Amino acid sequence: MKTKVWAHRGASAYAPENTLEAFELAVRQQADGVELDVQLTKDGKLAVIHDETIDRTCNGLGNVKDYTMAELKQFSCNKTHPEYTAAVIPELKEVLKLLKPTDLNVNIELKTGVYRYKGIEEKVLKLVKKMEMEERVIYSSFHHPSIIKIKKLDPEAKTGVLYSDGWIHVVAYAKLMGADALHPSVNNLRSEKLIKESKKKKIPLHVWTVNEEALMDYLAEQGIGAIITNYPDIARRIVDQKG
Ligand code: G3P
Ligand code: MG
User: Fold this and answer.
1) How far apart are the CA of 157 and the centre of ligand 2, in A?
2) Which parts form a coiled-coil structure per UniProt (predicted)?
């Protein structure tokens, strides 16, 4: 199957990561999907932001969990791309609303590794169901109990095992926990062993963060499941060249 192009935190090379602007651009750049990160606010809302704090991306300081969603909306989040003066932290429901009319896949990464954000799995599943987007969502997390919980709550939900260090029996591990895909760091793909094994066991690889053209080309040639990249436009061109 043709390798998919998923925009990492939206088209984040060109617009502030995890903002509506970055997701809109990913659609325009003809990505097949987007990857985004979710944290929980003080008032239990699903905020789309990578870090536990707003310090790096927004013009403020502090933990996401210590602000209400309305308070978070007061901050500009265009630190990396100052020309985007209107960029703010979106709520997950806003992103899903934006993507609903498209056919893009959505990889929702639950950022539960630092703070547990009790109940986040239930909230995300409920929202996706309400939006009737279950078919094109895949859940991932570095904190594997979260994806185990997602599967337990909804056996139909698709999950991906997110990891950054090389493991020896990762395909078997994914099978054991009932996951549908592996989400390895690109640094784990310097040999073809994992690619071969994943094909054999029918566990697709969704690889992040692939920003080098030569790597995109290699992974597209190998027919991996998805390239997760900050440059969906470049990946689109490379994947399409393969026919
Ligand atoms: O989900 C793929 C990738 O986003 C995982 O790492 O730190 O960019 O969320 P990070
Ligand atoms: Mg992520």
Assistant:
1) 18
2) none
